[in-house]
Amino acid sequence: MKHETTKIPQATTKRLPLYYRFIQNFAKAGQERVSSKELSEAMKIDSATIRRDFSHFGALGKKGYGYDVQKMLAFFRNILDQDERMNVALIGVGNLGNAFLKYNFQKNHNTKIVVAFDTKAPLEGKMISGIPVYHPDALEDKFVEYGAELPILTVPSRSAQMMTDRLVKMNVRGILNFTPIRISVPDSIRVHTIDLSIELQTLIYFMRNDEE
């Protein structure tokens, strides 16, 4: 049974993939059960936060026993839809986009880049790292043809909103935005923006303040 994500705090939701990754590590190590303290030490998250996060999903563990690793694997696989792959379209194949193509996601995640778009690519397409790359003029047709659901936006800032507007007309439900632009979308579309320069500046700020 799926839980209503709207009732779960956003901070908790963001930690779910991390929990799944570390539970996988315990399973690979042959561990049958794990305590919140062990998770805390491995993930560098305090055990009270872990117990509070897990409390949103009912009784996942037993006091004095901890959490059954295989049951936790099945739980997170279900709640994160790990058995249902989502096809991704990469829009913009610059330095960051090329890194995504070379890495792709199918080895460790339930997502896979199936098609990409770049202004330097021909309309008929070409292969880069085993992924077909087309000119953006073919976006609407090829996005549907390859069964893409989630677009990753890695285009130059000047093109970000224009490409977003086209995606909105295509009725996508979410966009992962790696541009520094705060793109505008209807309320029905979820946008996650990852601005690497802001993340870097935030890290520098905390590093400098930790020294004081």
Structural write-up:
This is Redox-sensing transcriptional repressor Rex. Belongs to the transcriptional regulatory Rex family. The protein has helices at 10-28, 36-43, 47-55, 69-79, 95-103, 139-145, 157-169, 196-211, and strands spanning 33-34, 67-68, 86-91, 111-117, 126-128, 131-134, 150-153, 174-177, 190-193. It is of the alpha/beta class. It folds into two domains: 5-79, Winged helix-like DNA-binding domain superfamily/Winged helix DNA-binding domain (Arc Repressor Mutant, subunit A, Orthogonal Bundle); 86-198, Rossmann fold, CATH 3.40.50.720. Helix 7 (157-169) links the parallel strand 7 and strand 8. Helix 1 (10-28) packs across helix 4 and helix 2 (36-43) packs across helix 3 (47-55). The longest helix has 19 residues, at 10-28. It is elongated, with a radius of gyration of 20 Å.
Q: What does this entry show, briefly?
A:
The chain is about 45% helix and about 15% strand.
Key terms:
17% strand; 2 domains; 8 helices; 212 residues; Rossmann fold; alpha/beta; two-stranded antiparallel sheet; 9 strands; Arc Repressor Mutant, subunit A
The N- and C-terminal alpha carbons lie at a distance of 49 Å
Count of alpha/pi helices: 8
What's the alpha carbon Rg, rounded to whole Å? 20 Å
Order of helices and strands: HEHHEHEHEEEHEHEEH
CATH topology of the largest domain: Rossmann fold
Give the number of domains.
2
Give me the count of strands: 9
The chain-level mean pLDDT equals: 86
Q: How helix-rich are the residues, as a percent range?
A: 40-55%
Q: In CATH, what is the homologous superfamily of the largest domain?
A: NAD(P)-binding Rossmann-like Domain
Label the CATH architecture of the largest domain.
3-Layer(aba) Sandwich
Largest sheet: 7 strands, mixed
In the sheet with the most strands, the strands line up as: 5-6-4-3-7-8-9
